[in-house]
Design a protein that fits this description.
Blueprint (H helix, E strand, L loop, with lengths): L1 H18 L49 H8 L18 H7 L8 H16 L12 H5 L7 H10 L13
Protein name: Beta-barrel assembly machine subunit BamF
Pfam families: DUF3035 (PF11233)
């Protein structure tokens, strides 16, 4: 009599686990604390001399602490700050890149097509990942075959004679 009860309890547990739909990612702290590389240094906060003469806040406007973070990021990555202005034409330095990337035409609904294809891919790959008895990152499970192993790619580039930046050893 105990065996049918345990089978019933196990089936009930699987059914309850299958009903939850929290998405692909479990949004929990990884346990090691914040990533020091995701924190951007900004200028120190200062107190204004007179609060009556502060500028009115504007949506998407600049702030006094970090006036133009996008431009600073573009410059830090080797780009040109003037390329951020949406009203300017494509810079001559980027014309060849734009020509090469659009040589086969660009569909107007590219984002919608990619979104639909990705949803179908996740649906096919995630058929058996609905059952959750333990907290697991389903995103990594579904896209496992689509990811590159950085250590293997780095070693392949080195074997091909391409200069690569130094990387920590694989076993660390």
């Amino acid at each position: 009599m105990r065996l049918p009860r345990s089978i019933f309890a196990l089936t009930l547990a699987f059914a309850a686990a299958g009903c939850s739909d929290i998405g692909l990612r479990h949004l929990e702290a990884p346990g090691q604390g914040p990533d020091e590389f995701s924190v951007l240094p900004v200028k120190p906060l200062t107190q204004p001399k007179d609060y009556a003469f502060l500028p009115a806040p504007t949506l998407g406007g600049e702030n006094l602490t970090d006036p133009n973070p996008k431009a600073e990021a573009v410059v830090a990555l080797g780009g040109n700050e003037s390329s951020l202005n949406a009203n300017t034409a494509i810079p001559s330095t980027d014309a060849a890149l734009v020509t090469a990337s659009s040589r086969y035409g660009v569909a107007a609904n590219t984002r919608q097509v990619v979104d639909a294809e990705d949803a179908e891919f996740r649906r096919k790959q995630g058929r058996l990942t609905r059952l959750r008895l333990f907290k697991v990152d389903r995103y990594s499970q579904i896209y496992r075959r689509e990811t590159l192993n950085p250590d293997r790619q780095n070693e392949a580039a080195r074997q091909a004679g391409i200069e690569t930046p130094s990387a920590p050893p694989v076993d660390e």
